[in-house]
SDR family oxidoreductase (Saccharopolyspora erythraea), 249 residues
Amino acid sequence: MGEFDGLVAAVTGGASGIGLATARLLAERGAAVAVLDLRPHDVGESLLGVRCDVTDDGEVRSAVEAVRERFGGLDVLVNNAGIGAQGDISANDDAEWHHVLDVNVVGIARVSRAALGLLRASEHAAIVNTCSIAGIAGLPQRALYSASKGAVRALTLAMAADHVREGIRVNCVAPGTVDTPWIGRLLDSAADPGAERAALEARQPTGRLVSAAEVAHAIVHLASPAAAGTTGTVLNVDGGMSGLRVRPA
Ligand code: NAD
């Protein structure tokens, strides 16, 4: 028996990295899983891939409706789709600010709003948002991204308060640097990818990057009926980055 037997989950940004690891783990634990992503065909056969750009309200509504049609309801929503931005406040123009906030913050509101009716009807309703260490601690050269993830943290708490009496739990995870295709792309664009990777590893007290599976396990725990007493929390999965003062090795 899996702890998600009979439950339905949707994971945005579930075609890659943290989202894909989460979608697979939810399926392994018994959930029927839909992946809502720009690239729905990348998810394999055990998951339902649904085309969904979280910045497009029409696509979001259709995707949630597709989940309802296929699986009959929705119990777990993982709002994980996100994009990055580098630099200080001068590095990005207004259009870039609006776009990153649209994907990383408004996207969560848009998908959650579309899913609320189904979640209210569930006896095990849980939302887990993907925040970041950048929303917790001050990181250099991440102004826009940090602003978006700080908003994810605040939105998580606000949603938790608004929906607690309806039986919908809302939590978020705050990963450190995670070994996903996203970080792969960042390293590929560096002048010396090996040195850049070593610098990212040294920044984490554990001396290594967090794995996508480690973040997935945290998300799946928060989403599970076993976490029924937990709402409005931020679970750091950051190799100690936010809380520890350890010299780089
Ligand atoms: P990734 O690039 O490997 O995967 C992101 C997924 O999101 C992709 O499948 C992409 O197609 C999808 N996506 C992007 N824009 C979308 C949109 N508008 N609508 C729907 N889907 C969209 O990234 P990842 O590293 O797995 O990151 C996932 C989440 O984790 C993001 O929210 C990111 O901010 C957060 N995070 C990542 C790290 C890290 O170091 N990798 C650290 C902290 C937080």
